[in-house]
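Project channel, design review

CF: Before we commit to the Hymenobacter endophyticus constructs, I'd like one complete example in the thread so the newer folks can see what an input/output pair looks like. Taking beta-lactamase.
RD: sounds good, go ahead.
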Amino acid sequence: MKRLLAFGVLAWLLGGSAQAQNPLPRLLRADSVLAPVARAASHYRLQILYTQIRRDKQGRPHFRQFRYRVRPREYFYPASAIKLPTAVLALEKMHQLARQVPGLSSSSPLRIDSAAYGQSGVLRDTSSQNQRASVGQYVRKLLLVSDNDAYNRLYEFVGPAALQLGLRQHGLRHTVLRHRLSVGDQDSTARRTNPVSLFSDSSLSRALYVQPAATFAGRWEQGPQRRRTVGEAYLQNGQRINQPMDFSARNATTLADLQRTLQAVLFPASVPRQQQFQLDTLDRRLLLDYLHQLPRQSQWPHYPAAQYPDNYAKYLLAGGAPGPLPEGARIYNKIGQAYGFLIDNAYITDSARGVEFLLSAVLYVNRDGVLNDDQYDYETVGMPFLRRLGEAVYQLELQRPHKQ
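CF: and here is what came back for beta-lactamase:
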């Protein structure tokens, strides 16, 4: 934390009546790492959403939100950031099923079969202590290391129709979930979901719930972005296509929806009652634990520290070269990284210093304008920017009163 305390964000950023004003524009201008990106914010498709949290005398949180170039109609590919709402909706479905079927829970052993082209089954999960898959285990893997297969299995469990309905019911009007990740999902395969069974124990001898294969025949939600083309060219099967890449059939969201999801998990009472996620106590605890837990702290699944350092998938405040998190800081977050887009959606807290805030950001770092060529500026532009942005806002928070 000494390095953070030495980081120079001028005290005048909080001077005068700045407490009631948006601090982000001046904060971005004041820093040598942030300013070059901010000056070309349109080029980098930069968006930032910062929510201050103040506790009253009873400890209840109050929120004040500041935006920098937040544009719901400007498309960004959400990549793995989209996994958080999927995980929460999967746990909500388990809660609903458990109320109807005694003995069911998110830890119930799960078997996935295949029934159509492109599908694959799951009988065992060696990352689990009982060698069986479960909704809870997929949530752990999704949150700890952003496991793509875990997301795909939860997509199959909930199903595209229920995902769309669930998003709208919880006020996430601009989020679209319409395909699996990294398996080449096309419209026809994304509409079909596998048969799923949940069992009473790891022997898989007695099924408590059987969900047949299904095909979604409805209309996909479109989201607010009318123009969903990115870049100047892209590679496809080794061939260069000299036109922007079309994302109209891809997942979509907005920065506000991402932060709203995280806030609804962490602070349920801060969203309208009818839009709160319906989770049992253990599953909400699972989300809270694994949103911040470091991969090396997990036994089942197990992740070696050498491959998964503490700052793995912690871009804001800690992104970049492998290393520890700042002393005292705890980061609850979900990141995304693909096609030149970098996203982090985080709640950062340091209880010893009375710091807590929500910070979400996205930027596009693709200097050559070509997608699918793996030549992105993640390490030279994206990660340094997100790390410094987290540091700058953290320093801002240190100088701000947090209790009434």
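RD: helpful, thanks. The two ends are 26 Å apart (CA to CA).
CF: DSSP finds eleven helices and 15 strands in the chain.
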